[in-house]
Amino acid sequence: MEWIYVTLGIVAGFIVGFLLRKMFETKSSQSTLNQAKKEAGRILAEAREKAKQILTNAEKDGEAVKKEKILQAKEKFLELKAQHEKVILERDRKISEAEKRIKTKEAEVSLALAQQNKLNQELEQKIREYEEKLEFFNKKNAELQKIHQQQLQKLEEVSGYSVDEAKRELIETLKEDAKAEAMVYIQETLEEAKLTAQMEAKKIIINTIQRIGTEEAIENSVTTFHLENDEMKGRIIGREGRNIRAFEAATGVEIIVDDTPETIVLSSFNPVRREIARLALHKLVTDGRIHPARIEEVVEKTRKQIEEEIFEIGKRTVIDLGIHGLHPELIKTVGRMKYRSSYGQNLLQHSKEVAKLSAIMASELGLDPKIAKRAGLLHDIGKVPEEETDLPHALLGMKWAEKYGERPEVVNAIGAHHDEMEMTSLYAPIVQVCDAISGARPGARRQVLESYIKRLKELEELAFSFEGVKKAYAIQAGRELRIIVESDKVDDEKAKQLSYEIAQKIQSDLTYPGQVKVTVIRETRMVNVAK
User: Fold this and answer.
1) What is the pTM of this model?
2) How would residue 344 be classed by pLDDT, with cut points 50, 70 and 90?
3) Looking at the DSSP assignment, which residues form a beta bridge with residue 256?
4) Which residues neighbour 300 within 8 Å (Cβ) at sequence distance 6 or greater?
């Protein structure tokens, strides 16, 4: 507290000095000086009193602060002590739990050791028993071997055979018996497989055919165009035939004008050209303006219209069959098949029919019907080339399909459906069979009567070219050749060989749709008359 007294003394000194200076400056009287002294003493006394009071208050405040800090220190100590006790209790709890777990593990380990010791004892007991039994078995086996050798010696003495000779004879006997049984089993299995395979194949093909509706055959080379009157024929011909020449040059179709009333004939083996000519002629006759320039204009417009229509037909066909992702060029080729026919059968209808048949047959066989349907639709696209080519239509169609990104199964099915290349998937024979079903069914394709009769005669003549043939009949519209042979010249084996040779001869020398079944009949008749 000394600094407080020093401060108060300095303050009082300054006050006294200030007053003394004021007194000297004003040259006051002695009374004034005394009064100033008194005043200075009073002020000094008050200052001392205030200093004591401040000191007293400061001591009181210090004690209060000291007590407060002590209380806070005690509270903090108690709080830290509580936390420490809590940590210690938690640590003690964890230690206790760890001790419990350790005791549990020790008990489990002790139990496991006890069980292991028990198992070891049992195992040792088993090993001892096994060794005893093994020793007993070895003794018995030695006795049995000795008895067996004695019996073999007795058998050799009785039978006169050695052991090796008896074994060989027994093995030979068993071989013969096993071979005979194996041959019987193989024959039965083959017959059963053939019967089952034939039945299943017939069932699949019949079900497939029954689920398809067929259509009539169509014309394939000429189109008849009807006129309102015969005067229109002269306008179509034109002066000195210039109109008809211009029309034939623009369309590539021959116009036949004869004496048939109100009728002219458009002749061409290209159905697309014939259709363009028919539509163009219809527009010219309806419009009435027929001259070379107009003919060329109308034919060009009609050609563009037909090309658009071809694409629409192809697109509609693909949508109807549910085929997706087909290249636009292939869609256009499919549409062009509408104007192409084979033996009077419309190619587009035939391809749609083959597609449906293939999908049904693939489903029956557990294959993907979408791939089969795609291959069936595209199998004859090689028949509608825009330019002439020397390639067979199957190989040409395969080339197009490969070019436009079709799957390998589809490409192979197109190229192999006439056996012009090796089949690499099951879809190829399916398409081949369905093509034959669609094309070879009765009424599917139309043939000229003369060629039909000629084919039947060729079949019969081919049969007569073989020795021993007595009669031959081509029946079922040329689908079967039935042959009767002379029984004294041809035996059963020769009849079987004759059937095979005639079938091979037909296959190599004749051209025919579908298949020809060759049946050779040999019979022996013994006739006696009772009188």
Assistant:
1) 0.45
2) low
3) 265
4) 250
Amino acid at 229: N
Joined tokens for residue 11: 């303050």
229: which DSSP letter? S
**Inter-residue contact 412 to 399 (CB < 8 Å):** no
pLDDT, tens digit (0-9, with 9 covering 90-100), for 281-326: 888 888 888 888 888 888 888 888 888 888 888 888 888 888 888 8
Q: How far are the Cα atoms of 123, 215, 348, 415, 511 from residue 340, in angstroms, in the given order?
A: 90, 15, 8, 20, 21
**What is the crossing angle of helices 408-416 and 369-378, to 10°?**
40
The residue length of the chain stands at: 531
CA 437 → CA 18, 312, 410, 434, 487, distances in Å?
A: 145, 28, 19, 5, 36
Compute CA distances 435 → 18, 291, 292, 429, 513, whole Å. 141, 46, 45, 10, 11
CB atoms within 10 A of CB 278: 17
Is the CA virtual torsion 75, 81, 87, 92 positive or negative?
Answer: negative
Distance CA 337, CA 381 (A): 7
- 325: alpha, beta or left, given left = phi > 0 and alpha = psi -120 to 50? left
The alpha carbon of 156 is separated from its chain's Cα centroid by a whole number of angstroms, namely 70
Q: Is 367 helix (H, G, I), strand (E, B) or coil?
A: coil
Pairing mode of beta strands 263-267, 222-226:
antiparallel
pLDDT for 215 beyond 50: no
Check: CB of residue 347 under 8 Å from CB of residue 383. yes
* Single-letter amino acid, residue 269: F
Q: What letter would DSSP give residue 474?
A: E
